[in-house]
UniProtKB/TrEMBL annotation:
Region (Disordered): 27-58
Designated name of the protein: DUF6481 family protein
One Pfam family named in its UniProt record: DUF6481
Species for this entry: Rhizobium croatiense
InterPro entries tied to this protein: DUF6481
């Protein structure tokens, strides 16, 4: 069946304007009815974002603490290594000094023995 209505330009324009007005009023009523839901969703998103930021800050704090612990452990390890190296150097120096003292004492003992032999020889000759 054909649409038997005779649509004039003014009828079509008024129908289009009524349709636009109906769409606009439907949009406005849908927006107003969704406002509490939108606010709730927005508050939920803000809470999620705040929780996410808090977790990120906590991870950053833990990471900084771990870095500080690692640096402290590295500094302690390095101090122990330096102390061990210093102790090793001191021990070598002490051993060298002891060896030098023994060499000097041995030289003095040999010289004293040589002088004694020389004195004994002189005593026998005279």
């Amino acid at each position: 069946m054909k649409n038997s209505r005779n649509n004039e330009l003014s009828d079509r324009r008024s129908a289009a304007a009524e349709a636009k007005a109906a769409l606009l009023s439907a949009y406005r009523s849908a927006k107003e009815s969704a406002e509490p839901t939108r606010l709730a969703k927005q508050a939920e998103r803000q809470a999620i974002a705040a929780a996410r930021e808090e977790r990120r800050a906590e991870r950053e704090r833990v990471k900084l603490e771990e870095q500080a612990r690692a640096q402290a452990a590295e500094a302690e390890r390095q101090a122990v290594a330096e102390a061990a190296a210093r102790a090793d150097v001191d021990a070598r120096e002490a051993a060298d000094k002891d060896r030098i003292a023994r060499v000097i004492a041995d030289e003095a003992a040999r010289k004293a023995a040589r002088d004694l032999r020389y004195a004994n020889r002189k005593a026998r000759k005279s």
